[in-house]
Each structure stands twice: as C-alpha cells, then as structure tokens.
Write a structure and sequence with these properties.
The chain has 316 residues and is of the alpha/beta class. Helix content is 45%, strand content 14%. It binds 5'-O-[(R)-(carboxyoxy)(hydroxy)phosphoryl]adenosine and zinc ion (ZN).
Length: 316
C-alpha cells in the first residue's frame, strides 16, 4: 500500500522462491499456482499492516506485463475482481516501469535520466525523459544479467536465486586469479550479451572444482564490469541529470559500489533503491501506478495481461 506515489504504508512479499528452488529456476506453472494461493492473503495482510480499509483506497495497481502469462493473468484477474468489488479503477503497470519507480519512493525523479534495469528477465538501458516518456536504448540480446548469475550459480552447485548466493560466496575471497570474458558487441550501441559467460563459467567451474569461491568472484566481476562499462558509455552520450538503477541485480554490492564511483566521477545523481525494493515488490508497482492514475490511464474492461509488451525503442 502506497500513499501519494511516495509513502509506503505497507509492503508484503509472497515469494515463490522456495517452491522454485526445488527446480533450480522458475517453472511457469509453479509460479502461477503460487500466485493463486498467495495473492488474496497477501492483499489482506497488506491492508491489515497499513491499518486501512478498501474504502480508503483510490485505485488498484497491478503488473500487466511483460512476464510469465500464467502469473500475470492471476494478478490482473485478481486486481480486476478487487476493482469491481471495491468500486475502484484498476491501473495496469509495465514491469520495467514498476522497477524504475522503486526510485520514486526515495524522492522526486530528476529528469532527464538514464535507467539501468537488471533483473532475472531483463537487462535494459533506458532514456527516461519524463514520467510518460521511456525509451529503450539498449538491452540484452540473449541472457539477462540475473540469468547469468542464476545459471552460473547452478554450475557452481549454488541454490536459486543465484545472485545472492554468488555474491555471498564471492565475498569469501579477497580476489580471484580468473578472468571471465564478456562479449563486446559490434556497432557501438548499448546492447548486452551474457550467453557466452554461462558457458565460460560452466567450463571453469568444472575445471576448478576446488576454487568455487574464486569462480563465483570472477563471475560477479565479469557481469558487473559489462554493466558498468556500457552504462558509462551511455552516460557520455546522453545529457542525463541522474542514473536510476533497478531490478534484482541492483541489490548486488559490487555493482552498487562501482555505479556509485561512476556517478560520483561524472557528477550525476545516482538513484539506487534499498535492496528490498530492488527485487520484485508491490510498492514499486503502486508508485508507478500513482503516476498513471494522475494521467487517467486505467485498465479497460476488456484489457488483460500483456506479454510481450515492448517499450518504444530510441529512434522509433
Ligand atoms: O527483479 P527480480 O526480483 O525479478 C525479476 O527477474 O523480475 O530479479 C531477480 C534476479 C535473479 O536473477 C537474482 O539472481 C538476481 O535478481 N539477484 C541478484 C542479487 N539479488 C538478486 N544478483 C546479483 N546479486 C544480488 N545480490
Ligand atoms: Zn522484476
């Protein structure tokens, strides 16, 4: 529950990570079933924790897409049902937009801004001119940054989600003798590619079974270096007042430290939500919903989940 797009009244996370860990990744059907079981109890808990009643609410915001269709349908259907029952408008939010608005919970967004979204499904650089103008300037051509962590973790025998596990293991060694390559893409754009890294980690982990921590550290350094160097190039080309970072991988301490150094050197404001707001959460969806609410953008009666849901690309 969020008031005024800014003040978090309550935040409840019903995570299916434990159910997914059994499979070492996200199984769409498992995700959808977990959503069915947890969505209404989570809403009830959020209301109770905020000490408010449905009649105090102005609108219901929900992630409309992109993502796994089964899970999205559960969320959108629940939001529409609650909207009907409570007589409230429903707002359909784009998942990447929602991640960015985790930053709005900390203070007003400074435009124009560059945004780096790094999650299990996305690695995108965006040009964010104002609340309603968000264009993609670069994205991954294959695996997402979080996927590189998740798949690398699996090669290292670590549990899902891989990012926190890799970070914790990497932190047990002061340095690593290994260097894992990340492809530099031709053409000078801002795209990313992490699929080669997955193979390189698997090979290194098999070759060096006694050096798991050093391999984890090499993986973390490689992902972070690729993200930071491309973001640095974008900061040179775009007149950004701020860089906003979001998505589960933004919880990574090495990435946070290197982005802090980068933005400090460039004199650019850095927006980095606290780790709990970097991973998927309802407050960021509500914050994004607030700005759509102010623009009167509501989900139509015949509208539902939307996936894929590409954001406009720069120059199009
Ligand atoms: O944004 P998110 O919660 O879910 C979506 O994918 O939308 O991001 C989850 C991803 C997973 O791939 C997870 O391994 C990664 O974020 N992650 C991290 C860390 N915490 C979560 N990656 C690196 N370091 C972390 N501390
Ligand atoms: Zn996410």
């Amino acid at each position: 529950m969020v008031a005024g797009g800014r003040r978090v009244l309550s935040g409840v996370v019903a995570s299916s990570a434990a159910a997914q860990a059994v499979f070492g990744g996200v199984v769409p059907e498992v995700a959808a079933r977990e959503h069915v079981a947890t969505v209404l109890p989570a809403v009830r808990r959020a209301l109770a924790a905020a000490g408010i009643r449905p009649r105090d609410l102005a609108a219901v915001a929900v992630t409309r897409g992109p993502g796994l269709l089964g899970a999205l349908l559960v969320g959108v259907t629940a939001a529409k049902a609650l909207g009907l029952a409570w007589g409230l408008p429903v707002i359909g939010v784009h998942h990447l937009e929602a991640h960015l608005y985790a930053n709005a919970l900390a203070g007003p967004i400074r435009f124009p801004a560059l945004a780096l979204i790094v999650s299990g499904g996305h690695t995108s650089l965006l040009w964010w001119e104002d609340h309603s103008r968000l264009t993609v300037i670069g994205e991954t051509r294959d695996d997402a940054a979080g996927e590189a962590f998740d798949k690398g973790a699996r090669a290292l025998g670590l549990p899902y989600p891989g990012g926190p596990a890799v970070e914790a293991l990497a932190a047990t060694v002061p340095s690593t003798p290994f260097h894992l390559p990340v492809a530099r893409l031709e053409g000078g754009g801002y795209d990313f590619s992490f699929s080669g890294l997955k193979t390189a980690v698997a090979e290194l982990a098999a070759r060096e079974p006694g050096a798991r921590a050093a391999v984890a550290r090499a993986l973390e350094e490689a992902v972070v270096a690729a993200l930071v160097r491309t973001t640095a190039r974008a900061l040179e080309a775009y007149p950004a007042a701020a860089l906003y970072v979001a998505g589960g991988v933004a919880a990574n301490r090495r990435l946070r430290g290197e982005l802090e150094a980068l933005c400090h050197a460039r004199g650019v404001v850095l927006g980095l939500p606290p780790p709990a707001l970097c991973t998927d959460n309802a407050a960021m969806v509500a914050a994004a919903g607030y700005y759509r609410f102010r623009r009167g953008e509501f989900l139509g009666r015949w509208e539902s989940a939307e996936t894929p849901w590409p954001l406009p690309a720069a120059g199009s």
